[in-house]
Amino acid sequence: MSKNSEKSRVAIIGGGPSGLMAAEVLGQAGADVTIFDRMPSLARKFLLAGRGGLNLTHSEGMQDFMPRYGAAAENLAPAIEALNPDALRAWSGELGEETFVGSSGRVFPKSFKASPLLRAFLRRLGDLGVQVRTRCALRSVSPGSITIENADGLEETLGFDAIVLALGGASWPRMGSDGAWTQMLAGQGVAISPLRPANCGVIVDWSQTMRERFAGAPLKNLALSFGGQHMRGEAIVTERGLEGGAIYALSGALREEVAAQGFATLRIDLRPDMNESALARKIDAARQGRSSAQSISNVLRKGAGLSPAAASLLRESGPLPVSAQDIAARIKDISVRIIGIAPIARAISTAGGIALDEVDENFMLKRLPGVFAAGEMLDWEAPTGGYLLQACFATGAAAGRGAAKFLSAK
User: Fold this and answer.
1) In the chain, % of residues over pLDDT 90
2) Which of 294, 315, 341 is the last residue of a domain?
3) Greatest distance between any 2 Cα atoms in the chain
């Protein structure tokens, strides 16, 4: 902290994982910390993520972990190495929420919920003297001060020795992060990459049958390919296209292709565990043994193991071929034309944000000394699987350490 005896005052703008972790680091360093959040309560998107089990991080080794962040990996590496997956699991355990590794390598709290962890986290922050002001929206920021609109609709300009911005991206804006900060910082000369949906669904011009009969139907045990990337998993048919974990993993590359070309071609193998010849034999056997009343849909179900939704997807590419070999070939390689990406408000996370060369090694904005940024405000993206929360917590801790270092030098 500062060299005088008085506590340094720090504002944290945003009460999600990044902001809360920055608050913990600074509180432990002896700062007088106040968290400001425009919502009535903190960490709403964090709680929303916990409805599916709260995938906190991933258990794979760092040599496989860091490449998940693509071009941003080098910039994020120091922060994630300082608060790595093992350290994050230990931190959760210290708060009374032990973790376990699932069958896919993903890490979850044993309670499988976000709320117990959040409650324990907020208790720790309270014990550190961290103050919280909700229903306060940031209106401007400059070195040494912020202007907020408070719960009464009045503007307040407040002075602080350091400021940490953790305002999130723009996905699920009803949870609190709407991306409005981009214009404010851009107006101060900070380079901002446009915010874009990440880990999101894709839009397909389905037939009426696909839209009306199969919206909401799962497509299980798929192999998806695009741009040299391959993904095994599941998808869900929607009225407008496809969603689900396997789609989300490819959505960044699909998004860029659609932006550049106006469309992208996704390839789907509906039976990745069976080769084409074996599949053709099973289809042929099912067709030869069918009764006159048995439909081709039943042949596809019995011979190829396709659900009604999968069989309908097969027909989206045109009339079914005649021969069993050609039907098998299509099952193994369906082309789906992606014509758009789901809107950012429906995305799990956000790409774009503050250009990484706008912050120094301590996550301080070079154009705004004493102002730090963390989490999804920064220009990085990663797939689901624990990588998102890991980077949010890690960059929050790094920004907190950077702010503490800045204060100690004052």
Assistant:
1) 89
2) 341
3) 91
Local structure of 408: helix, strand or coil: helix
The strand order across the sheet containing 162-165 reads: 131-133, 32-36, 9-13, 162-165, 371-373
Question: What sign for the dihedral angle of Cα 20, 22, 28, 32?
Answer: negative
The residue among 318, 341, 364 that closes a domain is 341
- Expressed as residue numbers, the domain containing 75 is 9-196+350-408
The pTM of this model reads 0.93
Q: For 63-114, what is each residue's pLDDT tens digit?
A: 999 999 999 999 999 999 999 999 999 999 999 999 999 989 999 999 999 9
Place of tokens 């986290």: 121
CA angle 182, 187, 193 (to 5 degrees): 40
Tracing tokens 């040599």 back to the chain, one arrives at 63
| In-domain check, residue 4 | no
Asked, for residue 179, whether it belongs to a domain, the answer is: yes
d(CA 170, CA 190) in angstroms, rounded, equals 18
